[in-house]
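From the shared-data thread, chain only:
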Amino acid sequence: MTTTISLRQARVRYGPLEALHGVTLAAPGPRLTVLLGRNGSGRTTALRALAGTVPLSGGAVVWDGADVTRMPAFERARRGLCMVPERQAVFGSLTVRENLELAAADATPALDAYPQLTPLLPRRAGTLSGGEQRMLALSRALLARARVVLVDEPTQGMSPTVAVRTYELLASLDACVVVAEQRLPPALHGRAALVYELRRGAVVFSGEAGELPRRATADRRDQGSGPASGPHPPG
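Structure, as tokens:
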């Protein structure tokens, strides 16, 4: 089943500061979409806006042609949206087994995806390493069989081998998958993925992942031939 979730001229404010300045992007599925940007670029805020965990001060969230801007986060989750935040993505006081059982009665698909979790089933999730917690959080998302999967920093703390495996799993889902990363992961080089790069709350690039290296080279050449720029405010 195809699905698309999008932001249209979305604006988000945190008090007096505007984090998104009229961002427009569309994530079709089943496909992988990557939101790139440094800390403060707005990539995490864009994910939260799609999930409904932060309100828009302007613009809209559209899911399969329907405006869901005013739909609360729990209702979006009920309709098939799964959000995996960067932090506090697991229930630390529960065991690994209990975390998985909250998502599905049969945890076999998750343990097949991440066999490293099998010996950890009796342990409390809060005692796991950062990479192990990411595996557990993503396992719960895999079991949810969601139509839209949003993941902030999916491979944080993982070994390179597990990170590659994680992106293989995300790319294989029959879902619209949107991930937020600081830079394009090595696992996505040569893989078909739609990329949006955000900078200071605005989209500065959209296109296929394979276009990024050429664009970065051109940017460095242009910056080297142009006038020197002054200091920038924090992003």
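The radius of gyration is 18 Å.
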